[in-house]
Amino acid sequence: AGHAPLTVGSVDCVAHSDICHDQHINAYPTLRLFKDGKVIHPRYSGERTVEAFMDFVGKIMALDTGAKQEEDGEEMETAVQLTEVTFRNFLTENEYVFVNFYAPWCMHCSKVDSVWQTFAGHAPLTVGSVDCVAHSDICHDQHINAYPTLRLFKDGKVIHPRYSGERTVEAFMDFVGKIMALDTGAKQEEDGEEMETAVQLTEVTFRNFLTENEYVFVNFYAPWCMHCSKVDSVWQTFAGHAPLT
Which residue has the higher pLDDT, 135 or 77? Predict the structure, then answer.
């Protein structure tokens, strides 16, 4: 406990061939995800972009969190129903807030609602809903003229007026994950903080690194491999921006 939920590492399979032999690495690069020291995804095969890496780990961790809550008999979070009394404070008290402005008579809204509630149970940020019939003043102030309108706020201000992507839990996760991650990266650069990079692992550090961190995503590479060099700069950026590190 007390560790970041996801850490990013790299292993040079020429310099540290024993690790790669023990891990049965036979292709470079191999991007492998571990949880609590055990392999949970032997070889990532998606696109090699920062967004795709984020989406991949975000989904796995979110589904895992949901499964754990159900296992522990915890009640899943749902979207917070907001009113004229609570709306403004809710936006300013939480850094990021994603709000569904809906009307009870709207069919598209009903379809979105069950997805929205599931998303709220897994989301890395605060999720709210506003019934624009019961609380028309809020929706009037927000200039809501279509239902549902899914709007993202940060520190009480609108940063994304209307989400227009797919209405699935995965798509919502991907959307907020990217925005929050890019924001974190921009803030670190602004503050002159050094961006995190992937941790170079050796025979001495590898095993402890896997057991001391809950989730670890590792790039097993060879210096002579051209594909590996292409992946490396993306991997370092991912390590610096991952919303989960």
Answer: 135
